[in-house]
Specification:
Layout: H1 14-18, E1 42-56, E2 59-70, E3 75-80, H2 83-94, E4 100-108, E5 115-119
Antiparallel strand pairs: 1-2, 1-4, 2-3, 4-5
Length: about 120
């Protein structure tokens, strides 16, 4: 008689499938806390991730995480939730168009006078 071997496979847990709720986006790189600090600066967007429907302490939001290479050659990450920039990053990702050089600028909407950020 042959001996049957039983293979036991562990069943993945919720955290294995959905993660622990933390976003690991280049955790070893320094972070630019204030996206506005990049205003009028040239940089290269090396990588990006869109985070949609994130439940945070101020409600549900959509934002982008960016890995940047600055003019001094350093690489850093940052994030922004500005709708125009989020829209631009979504298009770039859909086109598989990274890396791309960019400058962060502020424009004013005609009629409303509201200012917002765009990548140019």
């Amino acid at each position: 008689m042959s001996e049957e071997k039983t293979v036991t496979r562990s069943i993945p847990g919720i955290k294995d499938r959905l993660g622990d709720g933390k976003i690991n986006f280049y955790p070893g790189l320094p972070r630019i806390e204030d996206f506005a600090a990049l205003l009028a600066s040239k940089f290269t967007i090396l990588d990006a991730k869109v985070v949609e429907d994130w439940d945070g302490k101020f409600g549900t939001s959509t934002f982008v995480l960016l890995k940047l290479k600055l003019e001094d050659g350093s690489e850093k990450t940052t994030c922004t939730s500005g709708r125009a920039v989020v829209r631009q990053i979504k298009k770039l990702l859909k086109m598989n168009a990274l890396p791309v050089s960019a400058t962060l600028n502020m424009v004013t909407a005609e009629g409303t006078g509201l200012a917002y950020y765009v990548l140019e």
